[in-house]
Every structure is written in C-alpha cells, then in structure tokens.
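DATA SHEET
Item: assembly model
Revision: 1
Owner: S.N.
Input lines:
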Amino acid sequence: MHIVVDLNRCQGYAQCAFLAPGVFTMHGEESLLYTPVVPEEQRERVRRAVAACPVQAILVGEEAGTGAR
Amino acid sequence: MLGEPRADRIVIVGASLAGLRAAETLRAEGFTGSLTLIGDETHPPYDRPPLSKQVLLGKVAADRTGLPQRRRLDADWRLGVRAGGLDPVGKRVLLDDGADVPFDRLLIATGTRARPWPHPDEAALDGVFTLRTSGDAAALAARLDAGPRRVLVIGAGFTGSEIASACRERGLEVTVAERGPAPLVGALGGTLGELAAKLQRAHGVDLRCGVTVTALEGDGRLTGAQFSDGTRIDADIAVIALGAVRNTEWLAESGLAAGPRGVTCDAGCRAFDMYGIVTDDIFAAGDVARFPHPLFEYQLLSLEHWGNAVAQAEVAAHNMVSPGPRRRPHLTVPAFWSSQFGLNIKSVGVPTFSDQVVIAQGSLKDARLVAVYGYRGRVTAAVSVNQARSLDYYRHLIETAAPFPPAPGAADQRESPVPVPSDVPDPKLLSHGPTVALTGHLPDRRLTVVQPAR
Amino acid sequence: MAADTLFQRITDYANRADPYPLYAELRENGVARQDDGSYLVGTYHEIAALLHDPRISSDRRQRTVPDGAAGTDEGVPPSFIGLDDPEHHRLRGMAMRSFGPPHTPDRIDGMHEDITRIVRDLLAGLADKERIDVVDDFAYPLPVTVICRLLGVPAEDEPRFREWSDAIVAGFDPTPDEDPAERQRAGTEARKTMALYLGDLAERRRGHPSGDMLSAFVNDAGPEGQLTPLETMATGVLLLIAGHETTVNLITNGMLTLLRHPDALARLRREPELMPLAVEELLRFEPPVQMLPQRTPLADIEVAGRTIPKGSPLILMLAAGNRDPQRFADADRFDPAREDNQHLGFGSGVHSCFGAPLARLETQIALHELIRHLDTPRLIEDPPEYRRSPVLRGPRHLLIGRG
C-alpha cells in the first residue's frame, strides 16, 4: 500500500494525523509530512484517514510501475 | 482522426508523475492499444516533493517515495533508458540503447533536471550535490547523517530554502547564498521575500543575499567556498539549488518548438513545431511543457509544479484519445506549496504576474497571513502562510478576474489595506530559477534566450 | 409556500422528523431572506464558499441588531466557536495543544481501545433486554463517558451538567417562538453555572495534572502562553457540550438510517472495512449539526445573485447543502460506500469541527459493535420522537426490538 497526498488540496485539517499518527504527522501547525509506503499494521488506520480527509486529498493504491522490466 | 484513436500505439517519454497520471487517464478513458512508458531513471515513478522534506529530515528513506497507481495499467515500462531523439516523420522515438519505438501518438513528459554547477571540476568535488532525483536525495541524506560541520546551499528558491530548513532542523550549520535580494523573491516578490529572509535568520541560517559563490574550493573533497564580496567560508557540503533545466535536448533535431524554456504546446497540450504550426499527434505535459493560459493574457507559462503535472497530464491524455470537438483545454489555476521552517506556504495563481501586493488577512509579524497579488487592477494570485483554508476564496477571485485590491471586510485584516509594489525581480538577477516562468507569446524556439546560470 | 417563512417551517417541531423537503425548497430559492431580516443559504457550493470567505464572521456581536444569545453580558467570554481570527485561532490552537497534532498527535488514536471497551461494556449491560433505547442505553452514555475522561470531569456529575447542557442548547435554539429571550436568559445562566463548575475542576488540578485536558489547560503553556481562567471555563463549556450533544445524534441517526436501509446494514456486516466511509455518508445524509445559525457578513456580500447586507444574521443550512443534487449524485440516496463525499457534516474552513476525529472514531466503533451485537434489530417506532433542537437534530429516544 502506497499513498500520496495532493498537498494543493490539503488545508491542514489534520484528520489523517489524528487517525493515523504513525503515518501522517503535522509539521508545525499546517504542514503535513507522511510516510509514502504504508506499513502493514497501519493499513486500517490509513483507510480511516483516507475516508476522513475533508478535502479527499489522499490517494492510496499499489505502487506504480512494479511491472516494469 | 488517424486510425482508431482508442486502439493504436501510444508512447509516453518520461516515467515520472506526469507520465504515470497520463497513462492512467488513457486507460481510464478506454484506450485499449499498446502503451509504452520510457524513463531514464531506473526507479518506477516516485514522488519528488518529499525528497527535500521527509527524506532530508531522515524520516523517510529516499527510495521509499514510490507513487501509488490509480489503476492497473497494462503498460510496457522501459526504465533506465534515455530517449535520445525523435523522428517525427517516421514517428519513432530513438533510444540511447540503439532501439527505436514506433508510435501513433506521443506524449512528451521528460520534465526537468537540476541545473548543474557551471564549473565541472568544482561540481565534481566530493561533497557537492544537487537535489532532483531519489538518488541525489539518498546521497545527500547520507552525508547529512554523517554530521557535516557546515552546509552551503547555493540558491534560495523553494528547493534551496527547504534544504536549509531541513538542515537547521537537524541542527546543522547552514549558509545560504542568493544572488537576489531575498529568498523566494523570484516566486513571491519583495514582501514575502523579506519575511522569508527574517524567518531563515530567526532559524539560525547564515543567509547571504546579493552575493554569488565565485569558487568552490577543495582538493578532491569540498573544503569551502568564496563569495563575490570577498568573504569565504569553510563547508564540507554544498548543495546547488540553482533551479531546473528542461529536458528538451533530445528534441533538438525533431523540428518541434522545443528549447530551454520547454516544449511549446497549445491549450490542448498539442506540441507546436518550430514554425508555430500545431502538431496533431505529439503532446506535452508537466514541467517540460510551455503553454498559454487565458488568465494570464495567454502568455506561455512554464510551471514546475506537482499539481500542474497531474492536471496537464490528464488533459493531454484525454485529448490524445478524443476527437477534436471533445478535446478540453488545460485551464487549471496554477498552484503549489512549500513547507519550510515550520511554515506551510501555499500559492494559487501566478504571483509573478503582478504589479502590486496587499496582505489581505493576518500579519507578517505572526507569519500567518494571506498575501493577494494584483495586476492592472485585477486579482492574479494569492499566497497563504499557515492559513491555507482561506485560499479557496482567492482562487475564486482569480478565476473570475475580480478587482484588485480585493473587497474589504476580512475579519482578520490587520496589515495596511493599501497595496504596495509586488517587487518581482527580473529572473536574471537571481540564483534560483523561478518555478513559474512567464515566457511571452511566441512558440518559436529561436526567440527563447538562455540565461546564464549565475 | 413563501420562501420568507422557510425558517419558521424548518424550525417548527412538527417538521423535525423530516426537514428534507423544506431543504429542497430552500435550495430552489438559492438564498432565502426571512421576515426578520435574516438570510438562509442551502446550496452546497454557496455554503462551501461562505465557509471559506474571510468576510463572514462567527461573532454574533457583529450583527446589526445584536441578539441575546451573544453572551456578552454575563462575565464568561465567548468561546472560540463564536470568535473570529486571530482570537479564534489563538484560543483554538491553545485548546488543540492537549487534544491533537502537532503537540499531542497520539491522544485520539490512543483512545481506540478505551472506546471499544466502553462500547462493549454498554452492550454487555443490554444482553438481557428485549427492547433497547439506543439513545439512553448506548448513544448518550458513550460520548459522555468519553468526553468526561478526556476533559477530566467526574462521570458521576453527569446529571448536573446534563441539566445545564439542556438549557444551554435550548438557549441557542434559533426557533422564532413566543419567548426566545427567556430561553436565552436561562441558557446564559446555565452556561455560567457550568463554567464555574469546570473552572473549579480545572483550578483543583493546577499543580496536580492528571493527564486530562482541563489539567493541561491550567498546567501546560505553549508559545502563546496559557489559557486564562475565564478562557479555560469558556473552552471547557464548549468542549463538554459539543462532545456529548452531537456525537449522540450521529450515532443515533446512524443506527436509525441503517435500520431504514437493511441492505446497507447487511453490507456493513459483510464488509466492516466500509464503516469509515459509511460514517462519512451518515455525516452527509443525516448530519448531527443541521445548520450554522450564527454567521454574520462583515461587508455587503453577493451570494447567488443576491446581496446579503453587512450585519445580517446569516444561517448556513449544512444539511441542505449535503443533499444538493448539484454536488452529489443521487443526493437523497444513502450509499455507505459513496466515493467523492466532501460533505459539510463537520462544516469547513477555519471553524471546522474541533472534535471531528473523536466523533468519527466513536461512531465507527459504536456502530460496528452495535450491529454485531444485535442479530435482527427492528425499529419499534418510525419516525421516532425527536429532540427539540433544529440545530442539533436527533431522536430523543430510539426504541428497537431484537428478534
């Protein structure tokens, strides 16, 4: 499971940082830092965070290009 | 249209954010033909913004920023091989490994690379870095881990400033050298440039503006640097943050309007040839594209923005598989963000397309504010510092060409409501390349001018 | 009927069970001016724009004719919900220090097990009951227990603050009936009493922190300093009320909605991982806070082609915006797996709900456990009896039978 956050959309509501603090952290009051590769044990929390994002800025999916040769 | 647009051969040169999102959009729109992505890096597509933030802070490993995909792609990925040329008549991309790849339609999404230090012998010193790729970030992060005595950052644009911020957060001594009057001034103008300078100094950065680095010293290994004002410092790391160079050299013989400012295309992302005639089967998107925008008097914009790469790739892909009347223009309002020294800086519109600026909300003293930019009496941009939730309002003002200065009444307007000159300097005077470049109206590559690096 | 009576009809208790046809009528009108000079907005895009418009004040004292609920006269200052930036931002930030990121990022996540245990204990107590009142037996005690622990309020004081809370909620009920002034007076009085109660609790923790938020308010200081005793009281009242008057409705509305949509209920049993999305859909479909009644423009503003004069009462009908077909496909359909669900259930902009992550987590856990616990629940009364408030809307009781 990989994630990327559209930080143009992000307005710092921090719902992800509340619900999955092991993956999303607020750096200062409004900047979001996150771990793009989600550890197995954090998946459920990340799903909660994705659903809760008020601006629907978190994209979650399998890593792109893994079929590359 | 030629053939069956949903079932022939599409080649995307550039396998980063724009290339990936374009490929996904092609499939989402029902393209069933063969899809090839060509990228010179060996990694699958990864996200670059974390490289100067999470990665340099040591929170995320440089090779762990891979992008998620929106859907399965069924694509032929050719990674680790550079495209060296384009034969527009034979409709083939020529690869550096000698192979060629035929296409019916082509998307150029080759992006940019870091502008190198102009003296190759100095650039080759151990301890001199640029920051663009995950490999760059891995090497730099490892060196920061080793605890250098001083890091020199050359160029105080967004990347340079973020690097300086990460270093300070790690407790490292940092000198920032900028030829212009202030950090970020090339993108945000004088008022916020001044704020950025104060911020850097408050965080312990040895900020030197109005100077250039005249020499990087060392014998095999970097030991220090000399400045144009006659001073020198000891430093064991130097990061060259002089902006980006567009990857268009491979198109030099293609006949396309491709040059240092990018590949010129129309609002539908179709590339122009060198005579200003639009092509019908070659498209461009992302950092490498240069395109007209109606909100900014149809000047051609070159944007090095994450959001533009995504939005433009989606439009280009849609247009590649849609008949003429169904095609869409790329009209997204430019937007970007930066995170540095604990602040979240976000921008909508084009701040450099301005003559005046006003602090419409908040205060400079608290470093929490919205600056609104105007050009000839209309709102053209807004930049928030730790106040992102206000930006949607200003985006609407930009989209509707609302009068500048914006209507009064904000509950938290605390600075003077009288606009001041926006003081956007000529990019030639800066070390950092602007991440938004207004490049005039003409698509012809012969009219672009290469700026010296310093 | 005329649009200028819409607010009267929406707040009329007779329409509490189903205000949605009135909301549709409001959306048809775009902006509806009421007889008393107030303005209602019920379309999604307009509400969203106004929630981000810096010229819209949350401070009732900005109204041309200030109303009795402004709370200016009784010593306890307005809490941050009724203030504008920069003051709002300062106070909210100080309250946030002990609640969430960046300073206390693990607080809510760390309550997961605790909430689950409280929920299971409540359900264990219901094992023998044939008939359950979802409100009294479950949806009310859960958030009360949680907010008490979080703030550091003794749960055994619940009967006292429940009474104050009822009066406070009634005090800001904007229903234009015979005697709103009396309701407001009683609400102000109750707020003062609750403030003194919480202030006393907080003072007793000065120097003796016990890990809760009241302790943090009087013991921890950030760069902005510390909340003053009056600010501590105002903030405490806000959090205690918000923490237990809203989540109860979200949980109850949620169970009611699931019982009315057996397919959705069955699907959530099969696919429990959908619960976070389902709760977002509940926040859209039956939001516990139906409207924001206390906004005021600080300048003449144009909304959907109409000018709303500076100082007019402006009422944003969140629940109407949430059902706007211009924004949501099939807006009147409850879809527990809805994608693209940028609802207004928690508001938006600088005043977006402070406790949202806690409400989300409580409701997700509560509904998950409740539907697992009840094999074949059925509604005994539909529609159920509703609470009085048109703002914090939800059933007073929700009786369900099992088997």
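QC remark: The beta strands of chain A are 2-5, 24-27, 31-34, 58-61.
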